[in-house]
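Hi L.,

As promised, Uma2 family endonuclease:
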Amino acid sequence: MMVMPRGSHDWTVDDLKQLPDDGLRYELLDGMLLVSPAPRPVHQDAVHELIKVLDARLPAHLRAYFAPIDWQPDRRTSFQPDILVVRREDVGEENITAPLLLAVEVLSPSTRRKDQLLKFSKYAEAGVASYWIVDPEEPSLVAYDLAGDGYREVGRAKGTESITLGHPIPVTIVPDALVAR
């Protein structure tokens, strides 16, 4: 039986190890526990197709992972991006703590606000170089690169439009191609 921390902002990465493996996604944002249900098939289709696109282009010194894998930039934050790209040398035994080269979040009804606001801000604050938000319902992709202390939009595409991005690798993506029809 797990004992809950005293306050809502007292969670640490150590507390996550005590949570059940029950199909829910447990993440931390500055000590606050965030819980999301398992993703829907359209979400997983987009993740699957995008990981194939990235894997085909990644050089040997980079690695792409898909959730669940913990990125823990500090003791009170632990995210499981839908997809992340990192230098192979930055991968630890249990998690990743180094700033990511790319974090990708695929929107779900239950995560839309968290991905577009909360994670957006924390990824920028923690030095994640590029952040992509994919909406499989539209389908669309919006890409941001870190500039100074925040993100600037570097491209967006919807449906059959293509988007060519340069970071962390040059790649062209068509949002419609990410979802099974």
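Residues 39-178 form a domain with the tt1808, chain A fold (CATH 3.90.1570.10).

Thanks again for sending the construct details.

K.
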